[in-house]
TrEMBL record:
SUPFAM superfamilies: Tropomyosin. This is t-SNARE coiled-coil homology domain-containing protein. It comes from the Bacteria. It comes from Nonomuraea glycinis.
Length: 520
């Protein structure tokens, strides 16, 4: 029997299909690599364009916004330097006004000293009146002259009472002056409060521009200390003048009261002495009527001399009255001058108060305007800062995202390159490592040789058995059918296994060559 068809069924087939699939896989991998390179190039170009746009935006922000901010800060620093170098006009005007008030207070003190000296001179002029009781030569003889003298002394006492009343009025006016001084002190306290408020406002302004006004703090503090020291000096001088006036007026009042009391007591005692002496002399006259008749000529002469002395005393008392009237007119003029000075002082203090109020309002408006400007500048700077921070954060996030994406793309490209290199190496090593052709040839050769030997042996045995039997033709057909029924399923099974092996190898190659595409 010819069994060549059975041996041909066991030969390897379909080698060209495997090589074609491998070529297709390699071409697909190359196309995927080229596509990924193109997509990566497009992504890198887009990233480069966006980075160029961001660089242009940053350059525009740096040139425009930062340039304007630097110019604004330079102008603000220049203004602050000007303010720090030269004190404001209101501070100079306030110092001048304080100096003028101090000079005016000094002038008032000098005038009060002049009034005190005039009061002392008046006291020295009135002092000789206290020595009138020494002129008692022959006053006990004439009671009428004594009564006239007492009436005139009573008038003098009334004049002194008027002087005390006027001194009381003068004291009240001085009290009014002291009240005006207290009002001035209250106004100075208001000025101090306004200065304290100004210091608070300047402290707030310093809190806003602390980095730009280091030298301004010291100069403002020095100016505030100078103003406070000048106001303290004025207050101290006013208090000293008030204390001096009060002490001098008290001393003058006490001295005049004590002297007037002493004068009254002396006059009362001497009048009593004179009345006692007059009584004693009247008694002596009653006892010496005879001697009086003999001495009428002498008495007449003495009366004439007494009349002359009384006329002299009257003229002197008239001069004293005239001097007291002059002193009264002078005191009236002094009172008028003090009233005029008080009015002028009140007017000037009112004018200074108005000026200080105007200065306070101007300073408040200036501070409000400066606060508004600095607040606007602060809000503008804050908005720019927020915009810059937002842009910086956005750029940082975008750059970080781009960096991460580039890093991922780089790592993915490196992985793809490594994968392609590994696939290339594995594809290059597949024929050598697997040795499919050799192994299939050897396997088929071994199976073919074994089957050929077995079939040759079986064929020889069957040939001997069949040739010895008479029904060899029928047996040959039966054997042929049996062999065909056994060989054909075996050949089909072998072909199925080879197809499964080929599909497994192709799936393995596809798994090795399949790239992991990155998401755009």
């Amino acid at each position: 029997m010819d069994h060549s068809n059975h041996t041909t069924l066991l030969q390897a087939g379909g080698q060209t299909a495997i090589s074609d699939r491998m070529r297709e896989l390699l071409a697909r991998a190359a196309q995927d690599h080229v596509y990924e390179q193109r997509t990566q190039g497009a992504v890198l170009d887009e990233i480069r364009q966006r980075l160029e746009g961001m660089e242009w935006l940053l350059r525009e922000v740096r040139e425009r916004e930062l340039g304007g901010l630097s110019g604004t800060l330079e102008t603000v620093s220049g203004r602050l330097d000007d303010i720090a170098a030269k004190p404001p006009m209101w501070a100079e005007g306030l110092a001048q006004h304080v100096e003028a008030v101090r000079d005016h207070v000094d002038a008032v003190g000098e005038q009060v000293d002049g009034v005190d000296s005039r009061v002392e001179s008046v006291h020295e002029r009135v002092h000789p009146v206290l020595e009138l009781p020494k002129l008692r030569a022959d006053l006990g003889i004439v009671s009428e002259g004594v009564e006239e003298t007492l009436s005139r002394l009573q008038s003098v006492l009334e004049v002194t009472d008027g002087m005390t009343q006027r001194m009381g009025e003068f004291t009240t006016r001085l009290a009014q002056v002291s009240a005006g001084m207290e009002v001035a002190a209250g106004r100075f306290n208001r000025i101090d409060k306004s200065l304290a408020e100004l210091n608070g406002r300047t402290d707030r302004v310093e809190g806003v521009v602390l980095d730009l006004s280091d030298g301004l703090d010291e100069r403002l503090a020095a100016t505030a200390e100078q103003l406070t020291a000048s106001t303290d000096r004025v207050s101290v001088k006013v208090d000293a003048v008030e204390q001096r006036l009060t002490s001098r007026l008290d001393d003058t009042e006490q001295s005049l009261g004590t002297r007037l009391d002493d004068t009254e007591q002396r006059l009362t005692g001497r009048v009593h002495d004179l009345s006692g002496r007059v009584d004693s002399r009247v008694d002596k006259i009653d006892g010496r009527l005879v001697a009086i008749d003999s001495r009428l000529a002498n008495v007449d002469h003495r009366f004439e001399t007494a009349d002359q002395s009384l006329t002299d005393i009257g003229t002197r008392l008239q001069g004293v009255d005239a001097r007291l009237d002059g002193f009264d007119t002078r005191l009236t003029s002094v009172d008028g001058r003090l009233v005029a000075m008080n009015g002028e002082l009140d007017a000037r203090l009112t004018g200074h108060d108005g000026r200080f109020d105007a200065l306070d309002e101007h300073q408040s408006e200036t501070a409000a305007r400066d606060e508004d400007r600095f607040n606007g500048l602060d809000t503008h700077l804050k908005s720019l800062d927020e915009r810059l921070e937002a842009a910086e954060e956005h750029l940082t996030t975008r750059v970080d995202g781009l960096d991460a994406h580039l890093t991922g793309l780089t790592t993915h490209s490196e992985q793809v390159g490594e994968t392609l290199e590994a696939v290339s190496r594995r594809i290059g090593q597949l024929p050598e490592a697997l040795a499919i052709d050799e192994r299939l040839g050897e396997l088929l050769d071994s199976h073919r040789a074994d089957h050929a030997e077995r079939l040759a042996e079986a064929a020889a045995a069957l040939t001997e058995a069949v040739s010895s039997r008479p029904d060899r033709e029928a047996l040959a057909e039966t054997v042929s059918e049996t062999v065909t029924g056994i060989v054909e399923p075996a050949t089909a099974d072998l072909n199925k296994r080879l197809g499964a092996l080929e599909e497994t190898m192709l799936a393995l190659a596809e798994a090795l060559l399949r790239p992991t595409r990155a998401k755009d």
